[in-house]
Write a structure and sequence with these properties.
Number of helices of chain B: 5
Strand content of chain B: under 5%
Distance between the termini of chain A: 34 Å
Number of domains of chain B: 2
Strand content of chain A: over 45%
Number of helices of chain A: 5
Number of strands of chain B: 0
Oligomer: heterodimer
Largest sheet of chain B: none
Chain lengths: 521, 148
């Protein structure tokens, strides 16, 4: 079964909201309305019939983890003397198909007012009969929402709100989906980190219109297994109920986020990865063997995708998002899977010219005292970027923030900095068995970031000195995915083994039939 | 005291609560507190009974000093510290005098129907034992000996 979970929400609204409330219980923590966390199901026997004697509810700790609880308990009719309100001031204008709330224990009736520039542009009242009501109401350009909780569904209870979604989470199934194409790729040396994609056609049976917006997330599941988490890049409405959607994964999203770079000396690889991914507000997982690696070198001002690529290249890691809801950074597995997937007829075998030598140029950045002028004039919170890394910055005004590649300044005067000397070091691994008659094929790389350059050079050589590929169509049966090291029966070449570096398939039916490219090992 | 709550009471309570979500008017039984739920009616009843047992035992010469709160309202929040005190009171009382073989062990929670039953059964047994002890004083003429 195919299931597509679509968060049809105003992207960024939740994160960009400033929340306030009235009539709040003292332990209320509105930040929890912004975090996608599961809150404890607390039992308060003082509220009427809110604590079932089934042992499933938690005791209320002295400092409970809650989002919004009203301070007042409703009366015998569920009414409050003063209706509690939650106000969300947003950092921008947003558009959504409505609003979804999540109540704890029992629902409340409520009214939602949508504002634009302090004027109410839409109002909806809702009588809730579920803990997760969705108010369908498409509103454009709102920058504030006020939720007024007007009545609890049960007498003598508090209003308890756990979550606000500026839109709705929808589930779309096989009967509404056509042409679901999945493309997954890895690059074994992380010379680049590839973007996985998802494309599909939606033939909607829903009465509620879709307003596909850039960056909205989709989670694709096949037989309950997560295939991918992707984000809208392009949506085209082709008829009243038909939409063509093209999605990209987290890697594609990273490309849209700038990264200010820096000079790194004995920097822990995991710490650096955390800084990059935090910049992009993107979840990632790094395998334990990589977490302790140490990084030296330089990252220029770039985007987060390039920054992750430079890091992965330096630590001999692979980066991939397939079958995951985060970015995975890992060392290529040496554990071989004997693939039992059914291989279709028509394999092809090809390869690039084997490398006879790998040359890797790395850089050492050493401070010098040569001063240079970076900016002269008046600045008001101005970001000055540098064409090469700098240190020991000085400015007559105020430097509010700075790095090796930039400074944010306010005031009048001259901004100066001192340069780094860039020392290049060449590492090389040659094929010892090359004959004088063999065609020379020197492959060169330049990496401003390094961990163990000799090891990286060897790693690249091991992969490129035997650059042969098998392309085939396989009906997947096991855990085969990009990065898997598999053995398989080749048409007329007997048993072969290699790493899957590319998978493309159209999702339908009960099994996945994929076009694979395997890098022979 | 209530000592006969069952799983069926819990299931019924969940159904009744969902019916009220859907707009059904609450009955008087609902306002009195559903048997499958724990409510302030239960807490105040148990806390008052603990007070009574404590007073009786103090009068009999046992030195016990348990904190109780017998005026819980819907506006209150029953926190973990309250629960700890509430459960501990039962545990302490059960250890003061020899109890019946059938008396339940002191529960570690009130949040499961059988445990809630145990709390109140312990109190019922203690009150019964206190009465029996008092009667033995009369039967043995101890009451007239000046020692009681």
């Amino acid at each position: 079964m195919i299931e597509l979970k679509y968060s049809d929400v105003a992207v960024g609204a939740k994160e960009g909201s400033s929340l306030s409330s009235t009539s709040a219980y003292e332990e209320t923590n509105l930040t929890n309305l912004k975090n996608d966390v599961t809150l404890p199901n607390y039992a308060n026997p003082c509220e009427l019939n809110q604590m079932f004697l089934d042992g499933t509810q938690e005791s209320i700790t002295e400092e409970p983890t809650i989002a919004y609880w009203s301070n007042e308990t409703s009366d015998e009719n569920g009414d409050f003397t003063e209706n509690p309100t939650i106000t969300a001031n947003l950092d921008d204008y947003y558009k959504s198909v409505g609003i979804s709330l999540t109540f704890q224990q029992s629902p409340c009736d409520f009214t939602v007012d949508w504002y634009t520039d302090e004027e109410i542009v839409s109002t909806m009242s809702y009588v809730a009969t579920t803990l997760t009501p969705f108010v369908s109401n498409t509103v454009e350009n709102f920058d504030k929402i006020v939720i007024t909780l007007t009545k609890t569904s049960m007498p003598y209870t508090r209003a308890k709100l756990n979550d606000i979604q500026y839109g709705v989470v929808r589930y779309i199934y096989d009967d509404e989906l056509k042409n679901i194409t999945v493309s997954e790729e890895i690059n074994e040396i992380s010379e680049e980190i590839t973007i996985n994609t998802l494309g599909f056609t939606l033939i909607s049976k829903s009465d509620v219109d879709y307003i596909f917006q850039s960056k909205q997330p989709f989670e694709l599941r096949f037989n309950d297994e997560l295939i991918s988490k992707t984000f809208i890049e392009k949506a085209t409405r082709t008829s009243k109920n038909s939409y063509n959607i093209s999605n990209i994964d987290y890697i594609g999203m990273l490309e849209k986020i700038p990264y200010m770079g820096g000079i790194f000396t004995d920097k822990n690889a995991y710490t650096l990865a955390t800084e990059i991914f935090d910049t992009a507000n993107t979840p990632f997982v790094m395998s334990d063997d990589l977490k302790t690696k140490t990084i030296n070198g330089y990252i220029p001002i770039t985007n987060c995708r390039i920054a992750v690529q430079l890091l992965a290249f330096a630590i001999n890691a692979i980066v991939d998002t397939s079958r995951s809801d985060s970015v995975n950074i890992f060392t290529a597995s040496t554990e071989q899977i004997e693939s039992t997937g059914e291989i279709m007829l028509g394999q092809s075998f090809a390869g690039d010219d084997d490398a006879t030598e790998i040359q890797l140029t790395v850089h050492e950045y050493i401070t010098n005292t040569e001063s240079t002028t970076l900016y002269t004039g008046t600045a008001d919170n101005l970001t000055v970027t540098f064409s090469e890394p700098m240190h020991t910055l000085a400015f007559d005004g105020t430097i509010s923030e700075y790095g090796a590649n930039y400074a944010i300044i306010t005031g009048t005067g001259t901004l100066t900095g001192q340069k780094y000397d860039n020392h290049e070091i060449l590492y090389s691994v040659k094929n010892p068995y090359v004959l004088s008659t063999d065609k020379e094929n020197i492959v060169t790389f330049d990496c401003p970031l390094q961990c163990d350059a000799q090891s990286t050079t060897q790693h690249i050589y091991d992969l490129l000195s035997n650059d042969q590929y098998t392309s085939m169509k396989m009906v997947l049966r096991d855990d085969e995915k990009c990065g898997s090291y598999i053995s398989f029966d080749a048409d007329y070449l007997g048993q072969k083994s290699g790493r899957i570096i590319s998978m493309k398939y159209v999702l339908s039916g009960k099994r996945i039939s994929a076009d694979l490219v395997v890098n022979d090992l | 005291m209530i000592t006969d709550r069952t799983e069926a009471d819990v299931t019924l309570a969940k159904t009744e609560v969902k019916n009220i979500w859907k707009g059904e008017e609450p009955t008087q039984a609902y306002f009195d507190g559903l048997k499958g739920c724990y409510t302030i009616a239960d807490i105040n009843r148990v806390e008052s009974a603990v007070d009574t047992v404590q007073s009786e035992l103090n009068a009999m010469g046992y030195i016990i000093d348990l904190e109780t709160k017998t005026d819980w309202t819907h506006q209150d929040v029953f926190k973990q510290s309250d629960e700890t005190r509430y459960i501990n009171n039962i545990s302490v009382l059960r250890e003061v005098i020899e109890v019946f073989e059938s008396t339940p062990t002191a529960p570690d929670t009130y949040k499961y129907y059988s445990k809630a039953n145990d709390i109140e059964q312990i109190i019922v047994d203690l009150l019964q034992l206190i009465e029996l002890i008092k009667k033995t004083w009369y039967y043995s003429n101890e009451i007239y000996s000046g020692e009681v």
